[in-house]
């Protein structure tokens, strides 16, 4: 068959009668920063989604997007295939309190995992809480849970439509009845039961004004105690910082619930303070153990008057110290900084477990609490693990292992013997042995070596024409480690390659790796990502036309930036829930806390850096941009949808090329957490369908059959 001409191929991809998104009105609005006037023609889209004009705009955009997606042959079959691939049983690691054990279970296609409790060895598990019964459409979800030390009280936080707002409820495990009251105005999973299970310590914010629940700035954090059986109006204030209302606070407790720890973070800082309230002493004051904010301080374990703490103070890759609560003596180093990045640590069964990241995969060691007797825990491969939780005297702990081709397998670990055994192994409804993964190191423009993972079917031919998705994040010290995805196997079975770029801004190599791409150094992350894209093309994995780039939240910002800087490099761009207006991000909800990575537009030097990268402000009218599908959700109160609304409107107005630009706005959904499984798979299916269609590739006939 003769090759199609470029013009004919484009006409087939984007016919003249393809549904067009509505033209968005503009307003004459300007702001002045440091003497520079900045136009903001789509400022009106910052109004809450409940505003009739904004709602009408969103509905019209969605109608155009739906109509376009309906023209893609085989779109429905992709969703069918995704539903089949995710239909398998899944379990969480159990949490044990005495003879009682709690865990989650999903039969396959349940929107939310069901929580079960076993009352003792040999006892038939019973349902403790089924979140699927909390709403008909699955949009009410659990955001956090906790189990009391005696196993009699179960705390759970409920969020509606994916919002960060949490309503705390407590359930009697014996009777399955909830306490009569609930606790509101909390966020971010900041709640934990006290030792007796008679109440909870929680993070609280002021009640938002009506209509501003999903947009108003989130500040003036405080820590409170609620005693069950009393109204929230009688809650006791534990800590607030009136002198610094912008500081973010967060409560946690040690495993035995003998101490309340409070994190205190400054906006714009990557460090934190650490305070403690000794709960074994009546009316004990708040003690400021580390008040200089000169590093990260994370408590691991308390033993009497001492606390084991993971810190980056004088150790960018992390170390562990033992510090006195009242500061009578200097902290003692338990475990020195290593060349690998220390990710987490815990004390279980009288042993100290430390987890490192080595070239973006996990290494775990078991030690004595004083740092002696270091032994490596043998893992199944070069993947990622999570777990190692429990009480200081628990004889066993659990961990989950997965990599790009191995589904999450749950292991039971005997602390005394150091032996692991498979506890639960997922049974896939497909053959996961036909895929393979590898790791390469890409040289960025300043010579930095950047890890990148590649996943695809075995036997891939390097033709330079394989459909490829390049994913990245690069921020907030969030590293990218291997993880298995059943939905990703659909992409690979359609001939696709999936690549993950471990760019600067994450924590793959510790604090220095993170801080090398913050504030005025943000461009390093984008240069790394562009270098990875160029590597994929030069090494014949794909071509410009067949390369799609994807990321969410800070990763959505990443995609917006690199598309502006190198529109020639990509065939398709899919930014999800992205931070797109870098001059106003700190005006909404929790955005001010992001100044730690981004800097502040109110700071002159940082303003110019932000202006140079801001996706919304760097769109140029008359340009040819890649095919773009912008994704957001109408009740996202983490990255408010106004970011994506304004960006999509301006991109549509700027696009002079033939490639389509649409925005997909999920209803009754937030930043991603708690989204019903069907909604999640519909989103993934639309991404795959849009991507292949705009690469000029048909969805294979065997998909969804």
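-> sequence recovered:
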């Amino acid at each position: 068959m003769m090759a199609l001409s470029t013009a004919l191929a484009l006409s087939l991809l984007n016919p003249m009668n393809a549904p067009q998104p509505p033209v968005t009105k503009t307003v004459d609005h300007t702001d002045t920063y440091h003497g520079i006037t900045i136009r903001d023609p789509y400022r009106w889209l910052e109004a809450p989604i409940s505003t009739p004009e904004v709602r009408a705009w969103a509905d019209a955009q969605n109608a155009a997007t739906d109509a376009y997606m309906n023209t893609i042959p085989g779109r429905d079959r992709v969703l069918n295939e995704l539903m089949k691939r995710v239909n398998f049983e899944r379990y969480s690691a159990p949490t044990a309190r005495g003879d009682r054990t709690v865990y989650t279970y999903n039969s396959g296609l349940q929107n939310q995992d069901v929580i079960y409790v076993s009352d003792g060895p040999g006892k038939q598990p019973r349902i403790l809480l089924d979140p699927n019964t909390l709403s008909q459409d699955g949009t009410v979800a659990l955001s956090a849970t906790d189990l009391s030390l005696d196993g009699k009280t179960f705390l759970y936080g409920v969020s509606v439509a994916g919002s960060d707002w949490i309503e705390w409820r407590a359930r009697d495990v014996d009777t399955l009845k909830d306490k009569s009251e609930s606790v509101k105005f909390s966020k971010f999973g900041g709640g934990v039961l006290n030792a007796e299970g008679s109440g909870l310590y929680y993070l609280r914010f002021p009640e938002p004004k009506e209509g501003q629940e999903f947009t108003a700035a989130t500040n003036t954090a405080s820590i409170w105690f609620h005693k069950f059986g009393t109204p929230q109006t009688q809650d006791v204030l534990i800590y607030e910082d009136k002198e610094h209302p912008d500081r973010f606070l967060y409560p946690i407790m040690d495993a035995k619930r003998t101490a309340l720890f409070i994190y205190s973070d400054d906006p714009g800082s990557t460090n934190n303070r650490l305070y403690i309230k000794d709960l074994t002493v009546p009316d004990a004051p708040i003690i400021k153990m580390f008040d200089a904010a000169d590093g990260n301080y994370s408590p691991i374990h308390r033993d009497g008057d001492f606390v084991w703490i993971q810190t980056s103070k004088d150790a960018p890759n992390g170390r562990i110290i033992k510090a006195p609560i009242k500061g009578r003596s200097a902290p003692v180093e338990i475990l020195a900084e290593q060349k690998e990045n220390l990710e987490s640590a815990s004390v279980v069964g009288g042993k100290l477990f430390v987890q490192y990241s080595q070239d973006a995969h996990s290494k775990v060691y078991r030690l004595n609490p004083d740092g002696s007797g270091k032994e490596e825990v043998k893992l199944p491969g070069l993947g990622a693990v999570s777990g190692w939780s429990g009480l200081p005297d628990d004889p066993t702990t659990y961990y989950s292992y997965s990599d790009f081709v191995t589904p999450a397998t749950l292991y039971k670990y005997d602390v005394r013997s150091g032996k692991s055994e498979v506890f639960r192994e997922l049974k896939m409804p497909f053959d996961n042995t036909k895929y393979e993964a590898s790791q390469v190191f890409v040289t960025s423009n300043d010579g930095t070596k950047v890890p990148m993972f590649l996943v695809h079917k075995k036997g891939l031919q390097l033709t330079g024409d394989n459909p490829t998705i390049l994913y990245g994040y690069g921020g907030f010290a969030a590293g990218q480690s291997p993880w298995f995805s059943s939905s990703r196997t659909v992409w690979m079975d359609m001939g696709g390659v999936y690549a993950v770029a471990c760019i600067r801004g994450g924590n793959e190599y510790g604090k220095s790796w993170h801080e090398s791409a913050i504030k005025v150094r943000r461009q390093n992350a984008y240069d790394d990502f562009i270098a990875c894209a160029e590597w994929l093309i030069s090494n014949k994995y794909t071509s410009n036309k067949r390369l799609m780039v994807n990321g969410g939240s800070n990763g959505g910002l990443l995609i917006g930036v690199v598309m502006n800087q190198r529109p020639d490099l990509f065939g398709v761009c899919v930014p999800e829930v992205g931070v797109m207006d870098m001059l106003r991000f700190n005006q909404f909800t929790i955005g001010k806390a992001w100044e730690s990575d981004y800097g502040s537009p109110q700071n002159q030097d940082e303003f110019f850096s932000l202006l140079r990268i801001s996706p919304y402000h760097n769109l140029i009218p008359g340009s040819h941009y890649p095919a773009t599908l912008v994704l957001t959700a109408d009740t996202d109160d983490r990255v408010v949808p106004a970011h994506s609304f304004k960006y999509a409107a301006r991109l549509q107005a700027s696009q002079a090329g033939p490639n389509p630009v649409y925005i997909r706005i999920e209803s009754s959904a937030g930043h991603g957490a708690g989204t019903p499984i069907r909604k999640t798979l519909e989103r993934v299916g639309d991404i795959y369908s849009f991507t292949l269609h705009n690469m000029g590739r048909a969805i294979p006939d065997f998909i969804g059959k």
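Residues 514 and 572 are 28 Å apart (CA to CA).
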